């Protein structure tokens, strides 16, 4: 069967509308899938979110302070092992921690490879009048930097993947984040989904009525109009939501329910974690 | 103490959006305690606006309004008295996405009782009771975006029941639901009678009326005020009234060579016999 000219063109380059629909759909799907991992019965998933947030924040601090390369490598591998032990698929952790880090952090760290002094390992060039020298200290600095970022990103990924967003927000209260801020964040997260769905439907409606190609000017005009529609819908919705809050007794003072209870296992998790992190820091200081 | 006088009394209530578009015009209405009142009206007849006025969210443009024997015409401008009213009257909005604004079902159902300043233990008890009454206890940890349309409606009602109001206002609670979910919801709403609640429900779906209503008030879509009031069977038999108020329409269709018209409900089934 011969493909139509339109389908050939579409295969070659997705239109702006199609790309947006795909992007919005993927964003929703990804978030919903992330919550499914947080609902699994795993070791980290069972820990009280406040204990997790507190300990992971401390772990981030220690990761930032430690300089010893083997220690950082051990920390990172330990975190990867923790992820697997808590029933997260390795592929999911790898995608979140190993794909982006070398690319973006590597780009940032690349110049340091040629700028830090030390014992010369090898040289590149001369290219024209420039000769680039890579020293042992430069390799060590870049490796330390990459490992530190990898461990930090893995910590963040483990926290987000094993904790439901609603619990994560509530756990912020241990840092004395005001209740009103937590509630507004929660509502934002809640309605982002609704607005994403609305956006998806707007774009799908447009796609279903579009035959052939549209000029870029036309597309820009349509995007402007869609932004306006979305804005007015979200304004109306925010008014309605406020009315719904007032109808249930809201008068400006936020009252919330403490839903978490620290169990013995949570205290044990925090104690062990603090002890290990303290030990790592002491080992680093002694070297 | 049991309410002896009317729950609501409205005299000449009118409401205009932005001072121009008339939504209600000279509404007179009395609602007695324990009534299961269904307000029937076509789209745009002012049903939703009326419920927001009864809940003290909108201030009427003109007319006077009493609830539980106290005048509440200006209650929308008085936060303290509004809270008193919201403690006794709960409103379930037409769009459940508006009502479910918290990250989880449990948080949403607990929101109202918490704002009333109840002790934590009482809040937990009320939340558990409301979740059970609406048969959604298994959804407590879910996020609202994970719920189906029917589940959202039931949770939205639970958010109001948790505050244990004397009056429950329901704005088109069965709109856009499949028949099975709608029947289940009608059953649950009917159960509020056993909880001693006064229910005021707006709809234009005639088939749910007999299962819920002890009295029906029909709003005219042109008049924007009640044009009839009576027992459900009496109202539903009055075909002329239902056609006039745009709740059913004269339907013209063909059977081979035979063309004829007959009344046809918007949402009811299209079943009739030809002799």
TrEMBL record, chain A:
<keyword id="KW-0812">Transmembrane</keyword>
<keyword id="KW-0472">Membrane</keyword>
<feature type="transmembrane region" description="Helical">
    <location>
        <begin position="138"/>
        <end position="162"/>
    </location>
</feature>
<feature type="transmembrane region" description="Helical">
    <location>
        <begin position="267"/>
        <end position="285"/>
    </location>
</feature>
<dbReference type="InterPro" id="IPR012809">
    <property type="entry name" value="ECF_CbiQ"/>
</dbReference>
<feature type="transmembrane region" description="Helical">
    <location>
        <begin position="58"/>
        <end position="85"/>
    </location>
</feature>
<keyword id="KW-1133">Transmembrane helix</keyword>
<dbReference type="GO" id="GO:0006824">
    <property type="term" value="P:cobalt ion transport"/>
</dbReference>
<keyword id="KW-1003">Cell membrane</keyword>
<protein>
    <submittedName>
        <fullName>Cobalt ECF transporter T component CbiQ</fullName>
    </submittedName>
</protein>
<dbReference type="InterPro" id="IPR003339">
    <property type="entry name" value="ABC/ECF_trnsptr_transmembrane"/>
</dbReference>
<dbReference type="InterPro" id="IPR051611">
    <property type="entry name" value="ECF_transporter_component"/>
</dbReference>
<dbReference type="GO" id="GO:0043190">
    <property type="term" value="C:ATP-binding cassette (ABC) transporter complex"/>
</dbReference>
<feature type="transmembrane region" description="Helical">
    <location>
        <begin position="97"/>
        <end position="118"/>
    </location>
</feature>
<dbReference type="Pfam" id="PF02361">
    <property type="entry name" value="CbiQ"/>
</dbReference>
<feature type="transmembrane region" description="Helical">
    <location>
        <begin position="174"/>
        <end position="196"/>
    </location>
</feature>
Automatic annotation (TrEMBL), chain B:
<keyword id="KW-0067">ATP-binding</keyword>
<dbReference type="GO" id="GO:0016887">
    <property type="term" value="F:ATP hydrolysis activity"/>
</dbReference>
<keyword id="KW-0547">Nucleotide-binding</keyword>
<dbReference type="Pfam" id="PF00005">
    <property type="entry name" value="ABC_tran"/>
</dbReference>
<dbReference type="GO" id="GO:0005524">
    <property type="term" value="F:ATP binding"/>
</dbReference>
<dbReference type="GO" id="GO:0042626">
    <property type="term" value="F:ATPase-coupled transmembrane transporter activity"/>
</dbReference>
<dbReference type="InterPro" id="IPR027417">
    <property type="entry name" value="P-loop_NTPase"/>
</dbReference>
<dbReference type="InterPro" id="IPR017871">
    <property type="entry name" value="ABC_transporter-like_CS"/>
</dbReference>
<keyword id="KW-0472">Membrane</keyword>
<keyword id="KW-1003">Cell membrane</keyword>
<dbReference type="InterPro" id="IPR003439">
    <property type="entry name" value="ABC_transporter-like_ATP-bd"/>
</dbReference>
<keyword id="KW-1278">Translocase</keyword>
<dbReference type="InterPro" id="IPR015856">
    <property type="entry name" value="ABC_transpr_CbiO/EcfA_su"/>
</dbReference>
<feature type="domain" description="ABC transporter">
    <location>
        <begin position="8"/>
        <end position="246"/>
    </location>
</feature>
<dbReference type="InterPro" id="IPR050095">
    <property type="entry name" value="ECF_ABC_transporter_ATP-bd"/>
</dbReference>
<protein>
    <submittedName>
        <fullName>Energy-coupling factor ABC transporter ATP-binding protein</fullName>
    </submittedName>
</protein>
<dbReference type="InterPro" id="IPR003593">
    <property type="entry name" value="AAA+_ATPase"/>
</dbReference>
<comment type="similarity">
    <text>Belongs to the ABC transporter superfamily.</text>
</comment>
<keyword id="KW-0813">Transport</keyword>
<dbReference type="GO" id="GO:0043190">
    <property type="term" value="C:ATP-binding cassette (ABC) transporter complex"/>
</dbReference>
